[in-house]
Amino acid sequence: MRPAPIALTCGEPAGIGPELAAKAWAELGAALPFFLIGDPAHLPARTPVVEISDPSEALRAVAKGLPVLPHPFDGPAEPGVPQPAHARGVIDVIAHAVDLVQAGEASAVCTGPINKKALKDGADFAYPGHTEYLAALAGVDRVVMMLACDQLKVVPATIHIPVAEVPAALTRALLYDTFRITHEALIRDFGVESPRIAVAGLNPHAGEGGSIGHEELDTLVPVVEALKAEGMGLLGPLSADTMFHAAARSRYDAAVAMYHDQALIPIKTLDFSGGVNVTLGLPFIRTSPDHGTAFDLAGQGRADATSLIEALKMADRMAHARAAAAG
Questions:
Q1: Per residue in 3-59, pLDDT tens?
Q2: Residue 275 lies in a domain
Q3: Known binding positions for a divalent metal cation
Q4: Which of 66, 85, 239, 315 would you call most buried, defined as having the most Cβ atoms within 10 angstroms of its Cβ?
Q5: Which residues are known binding-site members for substrate?
Q6: Domain residue limits at 201
Q7: pLDDT > 80? residue 327
Q8: Do 132 and 155 share a domain, yes or no?
Q9: Single residue among 222, 246, 270 that ends a domain in this structure
Q10: b/e code 256-272 from CB counts within 10 Å (16+ = b)
């Protein structure tokens, strides 16, 4: 039985989200039912739109046009120019999508890109970004970001902090949570029965026995050994410069890196356009394209929809895997 359709949030109306939604429908059609939550007036003029009143209607509507669950916004949308009046609508659309997925009316949430400054300026948005807001809506304390493509799944243990602050942020508690959430997600959402997780060292050569830093010996190794004793399949800490080539990637299902660029450089090198952002640790599936609002491209029809299309495909695969795991 096919899972419920995927809820796609509109994101920032002045960005490339509306045209990407239209391109995704044109590419996927009825093969992967999803519906957009947003204002139909923000879509490109020639987009075939079918307004729906209930997510279940998307399964039939998708063959005729892009199914849209209407959410009217205040004020017009001008490509490339964010409007403060739109901020509340963007936030409310995200909350609506979460309500639907938690009620079982959607199988996953795929989020269009937002502009955090626009949300803060227009609605005093109190969260650093999408992920933190979703975690608050879901009532969870710790979530993990995964970047995924066909060649690699990688999790940064720390994300948007200065490199100088990374060593102090890499606590044992953080690492335990990161490894456990990644392990559980690989089983539940990606159908990996016995996950193998590669662990990158923080320092060059993974510290080389303490001669190039002690973080591995003091923090990483004790956590890795404790979790291995519990039966978790962890490899490392490994030297990060030798763990992302093809032969090395074949030995693990996902990698955990210690900081933002250590994780994102390899995946953006392998698949710059097709990478997908996945939030692990939520009680529901959430994916998003791995790019921003691109105001400089908005309204020109030139934006690349590959990442959004892959995000929708990954959400669909995860929904099927989760349904199979639940029996």
A1: 899 999 999 999 999 999 999 999 998 889 999 999 999 999 899 999 999 999 999
A2: no
A3: 160, 205, 260
A4: 315
A5: 130-131, 268, 277, 286
A6: 151-270
A7: no
A8: no
A9: 270
A10: bbbbbebbbebbeebbe
